[in-house]
């Protein structure tokens, strides 16, 4: 037995060069998928591809700035050219803005964050959906956050962006269910990634304590612990799950 | 004698020339507030000012497109020049799309139009409102989202994203600014008989019946039924409501 769940599938992971995206890319590859990693930083992208190849998997990197429409077009042309299809996508790339009160962000900051965290997800879906329709179906997981449900002080812009991802996911899932495409969002709590490091560098020990206290498990997640849920949502085991936002947060969000 | 709830208060209503915004502007004025109405259509704005004047109320209209930061700067400068304070803000301006394209069919312009009005426009107004209210020692903000701020529906992915976004923004801003005695909450209306629905009717003639049948009360709501909730959220009766969404939909969504 030892069947691989994503054998011969083509899987796209945006922001797949670090943190959660990297863990998901590695996990897809272990499960037999041909992985496409789209991100900005070439060096890190090449490293992940190497790690995947070294464990006997298949992957390639496409340098992509998801705020540039031409880059996104190029990404999907590349996938079409190389693989001829796309089966699953993890729209994961996101940025964490500096923490400050809602009234203190500038319009430029607002646009920069929304362009990556929301508009890029929308743009990627625009290309993923037709490819999946062509393939007869597919699964998309968008990376939202526990911040797609609630929000902590200083995080208004990030929280707003992740709420928007959940809205986009819900409506798109309603539209494309009949095309055999499932679209869900994953809402991680705190995950040990470079983004969390930046977050804690800004918030300090007090924020770290606050976040841990909010988490019944009393610890932050390893990226692999979230990757497992992403793969599940993309797998046939989740064939009747769509339009949902799955919270994987060590119990956070259940009590105040 | 008649006691007016908001005598001497200054209330801003965006999207005030039609639908729920117009109903809220009238309701604030009836309760004695001086109402600042912000919207794009000047003719319509003047009409509402006249209607308010007809029952002895006071209001001004400031031509504003919430997509434009310069328009918004001008709006708040006008408010401060004229009244020097702002007690209530009902950030209500919103747009949808009368046809029914799906996520792959939108062009960038349509995405931007919806997001910049419903999401960025709300935040941009809040930016000014928070500053003013913080300085003066308090205030109340109510935003209009939608049932699509907590759910999704066919053909409205950008609208749903924009309304979820505005709700997320309001939740966090509420936490951040309650220490300054500013309360922020969000109304999520279900199907309400406004221009937004009327515009869609030619494309979906049966829409009203279908929507009504999906509500528990078997009817589409009236703009007043949202305006009343907005006024209540501005009142001291709602003093302990912070960062919440209140779904006003006749039982439209039941999860």
Descriptive notes:
The complex is a heterodimer of chains A (256) and B (255). Chain A has 256 residues and is α/β, with parallel strands linked by helices. Chain A is built from seven helices and seven strands. Chain A has a seven-stranded parallel beta sheet, sandwiched between helices. In chain A, strand 2, helix 2 (42-54) and strand 3 (58-63) form a beta-alpha-beta unit. The radius of gyration of chain A is 17 Å and the shape is globular. The mean pLDDT of chain A is 95. Chain B has 255 residues and is of the alpha/beta class. Helices cover 45% and strands 15% of the residues of chain B. Classes of the chains: A alpha/beta (256), B alpha/beta (255).
In short:
The complex is a heterodimer of chains A (256) and B (255). By secondary structure, chain A is an alpha/beta fold.
* Pair with the biggest interface: A-B, 45 and 44 residues
Number of helices of chain A: 7
Order of helices and strands of chain A: EHEHEHEHEHEHHE
Helix content of chain A: 40-55%
Q: For the residues shown, what is the average pLDDT of chain A?
A: 95
The radius of gyration over CA of chain A amounts to 17 Å
General shape of chain A: globular
Kindly state the number of beta strands of chain A: 7
Tell me the span between the first and last alpha carbons of chain B: 45 Å
Biggest pleated sheet of chain A: 7 strands, parallel
Measured between the Cα atoms of the first and last residue of chain A, the distance is 45 Å
Q: Which stretches of chain A are low in confidence, meaning pLDDT under 50 for 5 or more residues running?
A: none
- Percent of residues in helices of chain B: 40-55%
If helices are DSSP runs of H or I spanning 4 or more residues, what is the number of helices of chain B?
A: 8
Kindly name the structural category of chain A. alpha/beta
What global shape of chain B is seen?
Answer: globular
Biggest sheet of chain B: strands side by side, in what order? 3-2-1-4-5-6-7
Oligomer: heterodimer
Number of strands of chain B: 7
């Amino acid at each position: 037995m030892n069947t691989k769940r994503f054998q011969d599938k083509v899987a796209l992971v945006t922001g797949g060069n670090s943190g959660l995206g990297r863990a998901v890319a590695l996990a897809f590859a272990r499960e037999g998928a041909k992985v496409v990693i789209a991100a900005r930083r070439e060096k890190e992208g090449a490293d992940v591809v190497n790690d995947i190849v070294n464990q006997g998997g298949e992957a390639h990197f496409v340098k992509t700035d998801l705020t540039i429409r031409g880059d996104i077009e190029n990404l999907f042309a590349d996938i079409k050219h190389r693989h001829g299809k796309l089966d699953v996508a993890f729209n994961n790339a996101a940025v964490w803005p500096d923490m400050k009160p809602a009234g203190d962000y500038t319009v430029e900051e607002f646009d920069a964050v929304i362009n990556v965290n929301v508009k890029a997800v929308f743009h990627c879906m625009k290309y993923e959906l037709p490819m999946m329709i062509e393939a007869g179906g597919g699964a998309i997981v968008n990376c939202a956050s526990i911040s797609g449900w609630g929000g902590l002080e200083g995080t208004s812009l990030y929280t707003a962006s992740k709420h928007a991802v959940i809205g986009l996911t819900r409506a798109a899932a309603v539209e494309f269910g009949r095309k055999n495409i499932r679209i869900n969002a994953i809402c991680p709590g705190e995950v040990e990634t470079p983004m969390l490091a930046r977050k804690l560098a800004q918030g300090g020990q007090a924020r770290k304590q606050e976040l841990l206290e909010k988490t019944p498990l009393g610890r932050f997640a390893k990226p692999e612990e979230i990757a497992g849920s992403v793969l599940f949502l993309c797998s046939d085991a989740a064939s009747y799950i769509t339009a949902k936002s799955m919270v994987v947060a060590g119990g956070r969000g259940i009590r105040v | 004698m008649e006691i007016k709830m908001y005598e001497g208060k200054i209330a801003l209503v965006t999207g005030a020339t039609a639908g729920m915004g117009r109903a809220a502007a009238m309701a604030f004025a009836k309760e004695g507030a001086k109402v600042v109405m912000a919207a794009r259509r000047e003719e319509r704005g003047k009409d509402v000012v006249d209607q308010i004047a007809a029952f002895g109320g006071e209001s001004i209209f400031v031509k504003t497109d919430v997509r434009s930061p310069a328009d918004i700067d001008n709006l708040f400068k006008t408010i401060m020049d004229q009244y020097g304070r702002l007690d209530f803000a009902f950030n209500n301006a919103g747009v949808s799309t009368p046809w029914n394209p799906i996520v792959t069919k939108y062009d960038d312009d349509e995405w931007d139009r919806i997001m910049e009005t419903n999401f960025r426009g709300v935040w941009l107004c809040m930016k000014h409102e928070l500053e003013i209210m913080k300085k003066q020692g308090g205030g109340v903000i109510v935003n209009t989202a939608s049932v699509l701020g907590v759910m999704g529906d066919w053909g409205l992915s950008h609208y749903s994203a924009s309304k979820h976004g505005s709700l997320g923004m309001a939740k966090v801003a509420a936490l951040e600014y309650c220490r300054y005695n500013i309360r922020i909450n969000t109304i999520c209306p279900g199907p309400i008989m406004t221009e937004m629905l009327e515009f869609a009717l030619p494309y979906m003639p049966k829409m009203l019946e279908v929507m009504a049948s999906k509500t528990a009360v078997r009817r589409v709501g009236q703009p007043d039924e949202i305006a009343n909730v907005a006024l209540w959220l501005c009142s001291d009766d709602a003093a302990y409501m912070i960062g919440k969404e209140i779904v006003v939909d006749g039982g439209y969504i039941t999860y």
